[in-house]
Amino acid sequence: MADAFVFVLENIDFNGTYATIEEEIRDTHINIGTGKDISIAQLAQLIKEIIGLKEN
3-state secondary structure string, the chain? Predict the structure, then answer.
């Protein structure tokens, strides 16, 4: 995520998102994803496996 943040700061120009400096800046969300979908349940299972959590 930090790499994506630095990339956005260095490469994205937000000047086209507003008409003048006095207007509120809106609709500037940026989706940072890996291109692979994973459910929350799958992510939780993966984390459990990585940290070696055993269920009782």
Answer: CHHHHHHHHHHCCHHHHCCCCCCCCCCCCCCCCCCCCCCHHHHHHHHHHHHCCCCC
Per domain, the residue ranges of the chain are 2-51
8 touches 30 (CB < 8 A): yes
Are 11 and 5 in contact by the 8 Å Cβ rule? The answer is no
Task: List the pLDDT tens digit at each of the 56 positions of the chain.
Answer: 888 889 888 887 776 666 666 666 666 677 777 788 899 999 999 999 999 988 77
Residues 6+ apart with CB under 8 A from 4: 32
Query: Is the pTM here over 0.70, yes or no?
Result: no
